[in-house]
Amino acid sequence: MTSARTDGVIYAGLIAFGIVGPLLFPGYTNQIAIMWLMVLMASTWDVMGGQTGYNSLGNIAFFGIGMYASAVVQIALFYDVGEYTAAFGAIKVEFTDAQYFTGLALGLGLAGVIAAIVSVLVGLCVFGLRGPYFAIGTLGVAVAMAELISGWNYVGGGGGISMPVFPGEAGASSLAFYAMFFVLAIVAHLFLRWLYSTQFGLALNAIRDDEDKAEAMGLHTLRYKLIAWAIAAFFMGIAGAVFGNMIGFIEPLEVAFPTTTFGIFMVAMALLGGKGTLWGPVLGAILFHVVKELTWTYLLDWQWVALGAIIVVNIVYFQQGILGWAQDRWPAAFGLKVDEGGDDATPAGAREAAE
């Protein structure tokens, strides 16, 4: 984004807040945990939407797949899943501490792997589409996933699944899942920072700038797109697994595949902060989440109007996002050079290279 020193200050501030936040505001632990989830969602969406130029509306599908994959693994290790979801109290369900944490660890790992595998299979079908057709196609995938799960009685269908209960007190569970989201968001961000600095990141930007030319120059564009989407799906799958356990109950439409909330939020957050940049999605996610929580608290019944207004203003007046607007206005502060013969800052490609 800017200098290494500035980056270090930002990282130190975020990590410090991540550690002391739930201690200073214990009543808002879950809300801060969701903020880290939002950061993760916006950052992983930007892998395809910003860096590669494929605006997906279906990334929420991997969130739900990871959630259900984790649930099935956690239950199937010790009980028959069909009986667990259909018994309605006919069987006595008890998980020991060791069983719970063993199932949770395996569930989180497999959630990411299964989501990544599904993303590759779906990508082989939808990456023949571009532009708005790709966006609508991926949205259809997310909607279809929700409907398929709704009709699958083995995993509870539309009735959902009650997740194994976290052992210990409620406060302990909140801190545990908070820590998971915090660590996951930091790890994903650092991984993406490294990824964008490699030739792989340059290949993604080449696809975004001119995919046909990149293909003609020898880039196996489909391979890069599949890998990029699998990376995003891997983190989204783990996030879904953590979220399902934190909520304690999962069902297809509102929790696992919330296309009209989280599915739209992740796109809006990346656009708000500035897509195609490392820090833009992080900035957008934090601001969007803060505004969302404030409007939910003080503007009840008007919260959707407020969020919709933010999106409209963003698209009409700040199409490059807050970070992109700031870079154009104060390029020197971001280490960008301005051409002597004009007032415009360096092109977007140079801007991203500087980041």
Automatic annotation (TrEMBL):
<dbReference type="GO" id="GO:0015658">
    <property type="term" value="F:branched-chain amino acid transmembrane transporter activity"/>
</dbReference>
<dbReference type="InterPro" id="IPR001851">
    <property type="entry name" value="ABC_transp_permease"/>
</dbReference>
<feature type="transmembrane region" description="Helical">
    <location>
        <begin position="133"/>
        <end position="155"/>
    </location>
</feature>
<keyword id="KW-1003">Cell membrane</keyword>
<dbReference type="InterPro" id="IPR043428">
    <property type="entry name" value="LivM-like"/>
</dbReference>
<feature type="transmembrane region" description="Helical">
    <location>
        <begin position="262"/>
        <end position="291"/>
    </location>
</feature>
<feature type="transmembrane region" description="Helical">
    <location>
        <begin position="31"/>
        <end position="48"/>
    </location>
</feature>
<feature type="transmembrane region" description="Helical">
    <location>
        <begin position="99"/>
        <end position="126"/>
    </location>
</feature>
<protein>
    <submittedName>
        <fullName>Branched-chain amino acid ABC transporter permease</fullName>
    </submittedName>
</protein>
<feature type="transmembrane region" description="Helical">
    <location>
        <begin position="9"/>
        <end position="25"/>
    </location>
</feature>
<feature type="transmembrane region" description="Helical">
    <location>
        <begin position="175"/>
        <end position="196"/>
    </location>
</feature>
<feature type="transmembrane region" description="Helical">
    <location>
        <begin position="60"/>
        <end position="79"/>
    </location>
</feature>
<keyword id="KW-1133">Transmembrane helix</keyword>
<dbReference type="GO" id="GO:0005886">
    <property type="term" value="C:plasma membrane"/>
</dbReference>
<dbReference type="Pfam" id="PF02653">
    <property type="entry name" value="BPD_transp_2"/>
</dbReference>
<keyword id="KW-0472">Membrane</keyword>
<feature type="transmembrane region" description="Helical">
    <location>
        <begin position="226"/>
        <end position="250"/>
    </location>
</feature>
<keyword id="KW-0812">Transmembrane</keyword>
<feature type="transmembrane region" description="Helical">
    <location>
        <begin position="298"/>
        <end position="318"/>
    </location>
</feature>
